[in-house]
Amino acid sequence: MSVLHPDLLTTEGDGAVPVRFVGPDGPFDGWAEANGFKGRPGQILSVPNGQGGFAAVLVGAGERFDPLSVRALPARLPPGLYRLEAEPEVARQAALAFLLGAYVFDRYKVRPDRDRVRLVAPEGMDVESARRIASACALAREMIDTPAADMGPLQIETIAREIAAASGASVAVSTGEALLEENYPAVHAVGRAAAPHRAPRVIEIGWNLDRADLPLVALVGKGVVFDSGGLDIKPAAGMRNMKKDMGGSAHALALGRLVMQAGLPVRLVVLVAAVENAISADSFRPGDILSSRKGLTIEIGNTDAEGRLILADILTRAGEHSPDLTLDFATLTGAARIALGPELPPLYTDDEALAADLLEAGRAVGDPLWRMPLWPGYRAALETEIADLRNDSAGWAQAGSVTAALFLQRFAPTTGAWAHMDIFAWNPRARPGWPEGGEAQALRACFEMLSRRFAAR
């Protein structure tokens, strides 16, 4: 499991080079002017000390400094030790951004020993908490970045067991044909075409469950380790990055680890369905009618709308715990990207207080969400003549992310608030601090919301 290098953030500041954030109004000295440094966002200028080193580094802050821009520094600064010159709260936010930007996925490359860009922890920063948050994001990103051949259902189960063991949590796993015996028929149907060593499974972590005095939080994640589209096979371009289709499970596990490490006063259930949507003689078909754990039948219009099927079973299972709060994460629809692009995940909930708390938490930590409507007028698009509902909404509704969320709402727990996040979990554009590949989205926002709601209990 991924952890960041422990010396990236240090409390030892001797010899650290100051990093100064400078806006368009300066101040500028002759060196800055000679090098065309105007304080624009993205500009970086090293100021020599006359002895072969640096006296300072100037970073363009623009009209309004965004601490998240510090994600770019680990990729752009020369190796060495640095300290941020900024107001304490801004410096603390920027330091966490620095840790997020230090992530590198180099599992399959020769890894020569190299010096690192390191940062002195700002005054008043909870270093261990920052490391845990950054490591959780790195875990999610590393799981997403790892090719499907090395991140199958068994590997997700192994990671879940390691997370649970570290916090003394319980783990229960149902695999293969046992899914039918234990009433996860939709999970079984989606994953049954995979090779035996990549058999589908439902993984459930339980923590603090003997504490009936504490509220219960359920985290649910879609874990499609590779999505061929099934018999409704994807084109090559659409299949290329489908190793990331387990991003929801990576987020649920990483957030669950954070909750347990922080010791939040809650009972916690983490539920992941890990499957491969493969193609074989035993694949589920368009026109099939599947059973679900809830007892509702589902007509299959498209085998590439499989994520909502496995979520239906594990959301139902989450409801059997009578949770006070349920959060689910899924790389569910391309329609979400058409609506909001790759950087802004849609948030769906019918609970006004939860929506407000999540949006405010996202703004506070620079992990944005955008609320989308559970528009009741589109529920009719899920109706079908021969089953309780269909997995591909009728074309007239058009709003594919909305109708997918409405499908999940039919299975979501009803004992407490529920929110669904249709994440992309991927950076399609490479830039310093945001390499192309896996990305953690809504994870820090959700942890901030949970910390605010429950830490003071």
Overall description:
The mean pLDDT is 96. The protein is built from 14 helices and 19 strands. By secondary structure, the protein is an alpha/beta fold.
Describe the SSE topology:
Blueprint: E1 9-10, E2 17-22, H1 30-34, E3 44-48, E4 54-60, H2 73-76, E5 80-85, H3 88-101, E6 117-120, H4 127-145, H5 153-167, E7 170-175, H6 178-181, H7 185-191, E8 201-207, E9 216-227, H8 236-239, H9 247-262, E10 267-277, E11 289-290, E12 298-299, H10 307-319, E13 325-330, H11 334-340, E14 346-348, H12 352-365, E15 370-371, E16 389-390, H13 400-409, E17 417-422, E18 426-427, E19 437-438, H14 443-454
What are its keywords?
six-stranded mixed β-sheet, 457 residues, eight-stranded mixed β-sheet, 19 strands, alpha/beta
SS strand fraction: 15-25%
Structural class category: alpha/beta
Rg, rounded, reads 23 Å
Beta strands, count: 19
What fraction, in percent, of the residue positions are helical?
A: 25-40%
Low-confidence runs of at least 5 consecutive residues: none
The strand line-up of the biggest sheet is 7-8-10-9-13-17-14-15
Number of helices: 14
**Intertermini distance:** 31 Å
Q: What would you call the shape?
A: elongated
Write down the overall mean pLDDT.
Answer: 96
Describe the main β-sheet briefly: 8 strands, mixed
